[in-house]
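Task card 7
Instruction: Convert sequence to C-alpha cells.
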Amino acid sequence: MITPAHYIVLSAALFIIGVIGVMVRRNIIIIFMSIELILNAVNINLIAFSHQWQNVIGQVFAIFVIAVAAAEAAVGLGIILAFYRNKETVNIDEMNLLKW
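Output:
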C-alpha cells in the first residue's frame, strides 16, 4: 500500500531536482521547467496530505498553484520570446536589459 511517506519521498526528489535545475542551468527555458517541477512537488504534498486528513483544502490550494503555474508559464514564455527576438539567445547570462 502506498503511504504518505512515499508521496513525501517523491515530492522531495522532484523538489531537489527542480532546485538543482534552477541553480545549475543557464538556459532560461530549463529554469522555467525546473520551477514547474518545484510547483508540482508542492502539489503532490498538498494532495497527499489532503487525502490523508480527509480535507479538501489541500486540493483547493493545489488547483490555485496550478492556475498560478499556468499564468507564470504564459507570462514567462512571452518574456522569453520577446527576449529571443531582441538578443537571439535564451542564455540567462545574456539577460541584462534591465541593468543601468
